[in-house]
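Q: OsmC-like protein, please. Structure only.
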Amino acid sequence: MKATIDWTGNVSFKATSGTGHSVQMDGPPDLGGQNLGPRPMEMLLMGVGGCSSFDVMSILQKSRQDVTACHAELEAERADAVPAVFTKIHLHFVVTGRNLKEKQVERAVSLSADKYCSASIMLGAAGVEITHSFEIRAAE
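A: Structure for OsmC-like protein:
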């Protein structure tokens, strides 16, 4: 896996993945940024959410659950000192579908947390407290 980061002025950078997808990252206005994109730590948090969401949906689809939507809400806390690393991350999944089985959703979230999500497992190994929860909503 590869990526490149190119400075685009002030505290703004263009990140390009090895597959050719780009995202603009920017710093806060008080540091010269123009709020043109997410901060790098926000990208890291979004990466954890994307990684885990990918796992949860894959597992639910393989278990033939009729999912119509999967929404992940992430909340993180950071250390007060430099480096301001993540100390806690909570992922809350809202899974919507028809006749969803609670055990299947619980299993999917647990498997992502404990076995498959490389991003959250890596951060957990570095000392970040990572927790998960979920709720199920019936599709209309």
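A: Brief note, in case it's useful. The longest helix spans residues 40-62.
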